[in-house]
Amino acid sequence: MSGKEQQHPLYNRDRPLVDNLLAAEATDYNLAELARLRVRYQGFPGAKDIQQDLDQILQQWGLTESELLEKTRAIHNVGGIYKSRGKKEEQDWN
Q1: How many CB atoms lie within 10 A of CB 37?
Q2: Who has the most CB within 10 Å: 29, 55, 70, 75?
Q3: Is 46 in contact with 29 (CB distance < 8 Å)?
Q4: Which of 35, 37, 90, 82 minimizes the C-alpha distance to 63?
Q5: Cα–Cα distance list, 73 to 5, 35, 40, 43 (Å)
């Protein structure tokens, strides 16, 4: 079997989001986006550039994976972070 990388179906939509996060501050919204993208790409056999950039963002913001998830759980418990965007974006959390 070859170790060929797969193209993630949402890669072309997510790449600009990741580029924006690389240059952004760790706001509640950006933390939620980072966690959502990490969940989406975790263990995916491809999109290595996105996975590496997501790791780099964590380092830039001085967070571990568990700290990120802890912060975003608290953000989502308060609610409202994705209200204006509808239910579509919340699918990765289910």
Answers
A1: 22
A2: 75
A3: no
A4: 35
A5: 31, 10, 16, 21
Number of Cβ atoms within 10 Å of the Cβ of 3: 5
In 10 A of CB 2, how many CB atoms? 4
* DSSP category for residue 83: G
**Quick check: 22 and 57 in contact, CB under 8 A?**
yes
Q: What is the pLDDT along the chain (94 residues), one digit of tens a residue?
A: 446 789 999 999 999 999 999 999 999 999 999 999 999 999 999 999 999 999 999 999 999 999 999 999 999 888 877 775 544 444 454 4
Write out the H or E segment, with its range, that includes residue 53. Answer: helix 48-60
Query: Token match 């999109």: residue?
Result: 47
**Measured at the alpha carbon of residue 65, what is the angle toward residues 62 and 69, in degrees to the nearest 5?**
105
Name residue, tokens 């990741």: 18
As given in the structure block, the two tokens for residue 10 are: 């949402």
